[in-house]
Amino acid sequence: MGYRDLWQARGVLPLLASSLLARLPMLATMVPISFLAKDASGSFRWAGVVAGAYSVGMALAGPLWSRTADRRGPRGVLLLTGITWSVALVAIALLPAGRHQFLPVLAVIAGALVPPVMQTLRAAWPRVVDGPALRTAYSVDATAQELLFMVGPMLGATAVSVASPRLGVLLAAGMSAVFIWWYALRQPSPVDHGPHRAVPLTARQLLWHRHRLPLILAFGLWIMSFNGISLAIVAFADDHGQRLIAGIFEAVWAFGSLVGGAVAGALPGRRTSYLWRRAALVAAGMLLCVFATWSSVSLGIALAVSGLTLAPAIGALYERLGALTPDVARTEVFGWMGSAAMGGAAIGAAASGAVIDTFGVRYVWLLAAVLALLATVLLLRVPPEVAPGSDAVVEPDEARRDGGPESPGPTKPAGPDLAADGLLGETA
């Protein structure tokens, strides 16, 4: 039912297809850039420095581009960043090997120019669909992201293997120039607030909120645990002298998430859907892996089961964050979520490496389970999604009371006046 409603909605298929193609070069970029840095310097350590510089640029500039997209419209921001990001990638590809010391500078610039494709897509869904179809849209988005994580790096690695790292970077630049342009033209019109257009929120107002802040922090904890597990998979394969199974484990884990997301999108769901329940399943799936590290087969099965919980939980978090954020700031809040993910990824990799060296690889899954459990605790107070027609009485969504007067269109969030707002320490 959810898929039928989603595909029948006008503009959904072009928006989704163009966003998938626009995200593809972003995920295909880091493999050739890393090999380019390694070939130029002769050191994987230098490749790590370049990759880190690229991530720092993304984390710092992501919320700024997202905020600009909210205030000036996403189309212009996407076109500008799509073109300039392509130029920055070309500069990286054409940098002479003898000048590799400038690669971190170019990487920071390139990272800062990455277009806010994921942020604008998640902000656009409530303008295109509503009701059960909106829940399905976010589930499809999370599921498709898993597929891209499999295809994107493989595309970059193929370009490096068949040709060279330089060609891989140039290929990503060419793809971005075309696909991001197409995605920018598919952007739905912003919600018309009429003469009572809401005043944009400051970053403090947007983040220091009793529901949005836990959602963003919980996502950062998830990414911290996911990145740690990826490192644990590599360590497990190395310990067993079967490095090839690292790729197989990653694929099995991602495939489980694909299946979980596809099933979650097809099911009608509960009338009252609490996000913390899905988060608890994520923690349980990671805890299962702790007891499955005694063989490759058992761990592969546990990873597949654990993967089933990921996309449904991530999609539900996207939906809750979008519903609890006013339209005038929805792109920006997803930009901050991306920055939390980048920080979580860096911390997760470092912490997991220390755990592997000190205690052993199986304890990384224990660490991941603890982090996922902390995320569950943070999400306990987040109001649930309530299906239309439900008799359940829950705390209403707060997007409208943050964003000003009620806005027309498919967006559903509503709530009481500002005096009852959930901003932590904020005055009206």
Brief overview:
The protein has helices at residues 2-8, 12-27, 30-41, 44-72, 74-94, 103-112, 117-128, 132-162, 165-185, 203-207, 212-239, 244-266, 275-290, 296-307, 310-323, 330-358, 362-378, 399-403, and strands spanning 272-273, 385-386. The chain is an all-alpha fold. A two-stranded antiparallel ribbon has the order 1-2.
Write up this protein.
The chain has 428 residues and is mainly alpha-helical. The chain has helices spanning 2-8, 12-27, 30-41, 44-72, 74-94, 103-112, 117-128, 132-162, 165-185, 203-207, 212-239, 244-266, 275-290, 296-307, 310-323, 330-358, 362-378, 399-403; strands at 272-273, 385-386. The protein has a two-stranded antiparallel ribbon with strand order 1-2. α3 (30-41) packs antiparallel against α4. It is globular. The model is unreliable at 391-397 and 403-428 (pLDDT under 50).
